[in-house]
Specification:
The complex is a heterodimer of chains A (about 450) and B (about 100).
Chain A: H1 6-28, H2 34-52, H3 61-81, H4 87-112, H5 117-146, H6 158-179, H7 183-201, H8 209-231, H9 234-257, H10 262-267, H11 270-277, H12 290-298, E1 302-307, H13 309-314, H14 317-329, E2 333-338, H15 348-356, E3 363-365, H16 366-369, E4 378-382, H17 391-394, E5 413-418, E6 438-442, H18 445-458
Helix pairs in contact in A: 1-2, 1-9, 4-5, 4-8, 5-6, 5-7, 5-8, 6-7, 8-9, 12-18, 14-15, 14-18
Chain B: H1 4-23, H2 30-40, H3 44-54, H4 58-86, H5 92-96
Helix pairs in contact in B: 2-4, 3-4
Classes of the chains: A alpha/beta (about 450), B mainly alpha (about 100).
Chain lengths: ~450, ~100
Amino acid sequence: MSFLSLENLIEASYFLAAVLFIMGLKKMSSPVTARGGIIWAGAGMVVATVVTFLYPGMGNYMLMMIAIATGGILAWVSGKRVAMTDMPQMIALYNGMGGGAAAAIAAVELFGGEDHGMVFGTLAVLGGMIGSVSFSGSLVAFAKLQGLMKTTVRFPGQQIFNLLLLTATLLVAGYIVTQHAEFNYIVLFFGLALVLGITMTLPIGGADMPVVISLYNALTGLAVAFEGFVLQNAAMIIAGTVVGAAGTLLTQLMAKAMNRSLGNVLFSGFGDTAIAEGSEVAGSMKPIDATDVGVMMAFAEKVLIVPGYGMAVAQAQHKVWELTQLLISRGVDVKFAIHPVAGRMPGHMNVLLAEAGVPYDIIYDQDEINPEFPTADVALIIGANDVVNPVARTDPASPIYGMPILDADKARNVIVIKRGQGAGFSGIENALFFLDNTRMLYGDGQAMASELIHAVKEL
Amino acid sequence: MIDGFIALYIFMLAGFVGHEIIGKVPAILHTPLMSGSNFVHGIVLVGAMVALGRAETTLELTIGFIGVFLGAGNAVGGYVVTERMLEMFKSSKEKDS
């Protein structure tokens, strides 16, 4: 075999792709180089895909081209069109597709009947199972976030049901690996795994969806790595494992930011207990109008803005940035304070603010900004709720007790822009709204931001 | 042939690399990075292509086709969404110039 053989070319290309993926992800972990990172990773993907056409012993090229073209074009168009606020569910959707692809590889290998031996047979089946769960689970997550599925389905004994389902799936998997079982069992296996993904995701509330999407992202990575072992494909093994490990850590970071364990997210009904146990809050909410807030902010020294999902829903980020620029031009020190789980994903707020043009160097993490609240003249809260609820510090009976929060209540004045008087996503009353230094500015986030801009300009 | 302990070593080392990459990331980049890693596991497309390329029966062809379709969607969609997100990350210095 000469050094310049086809096999060596393919292996070298996969090696290059793996290097490009890792370098790309590394670059993506710093805001300065992040934009270059995706281009590196993209180049890796192109190299790996093109060279795969040269893979020995393959046919069906026409079908392959059609599948790539239709899948690619559909994803391209949907990805370009989706609004920034809808990004989380698109990530869920594309992730589910990856899981489905991994499951499809496993299915072809299993139906093909080729004997992979015990180790690789087990990996093929496990990858197929994880991929199927990730596929159907991600689709449910997508449907929930997209508003296609409004109800959160819970029934008594659900966890036991899921556990039984998982056990059944594993038993069938074991049977397939050891007995080289035929068609019906393989169909049953994939059916069970797909149902498991659905029943696992159905009871999880919308607030926890980011953690779940991140978990499925890690699972898809793992499934891809397992199928990579089966196909003896180094690029798949390395890329899949890197994503599996990175995704697991990211999931843990997200769960930690909400002060909950992963098991708690997956196996407890959050909203149920919240409404029952949350204690009554004394006091009243005190309204204020935009003109007064405008004056207050214009003559403040330091204003901290706390955005939440409400800002995303109202599409208020552009108006908020306009207001910020106006205040900065008057010499006010304006900073954005971002809670790790503000919005529907960690970093969701950062992406929206970045879209509006807010430079990332005036956006601060919770740990960096919390010491500054006591010296802030105004904390402006736009559509955030649970992440600024002081009950998390004070009331051990509250379901969010112990969750790290932004210390907005320590600011001299707290202004809350809110559409109505209802409770937050978790269904818990927010003690912040009843404090003496808090004023409520009722209205749509975007409309109120416009009124504030107007009020500041009038001065 | 990637076999036995070599496979295990690759798995272990790649796992540490993934852990290391995410370890020091500011929260600001969590969503783009999740999206970026979502794109990277789009490499599953390559495996799906091999599976389809070797498929013989109608059943295998159908599943293989679906696999390539889904894999291409993962890779392309993941890229577009990540690129759009990262496009927005500019510092105040870049804005001024």
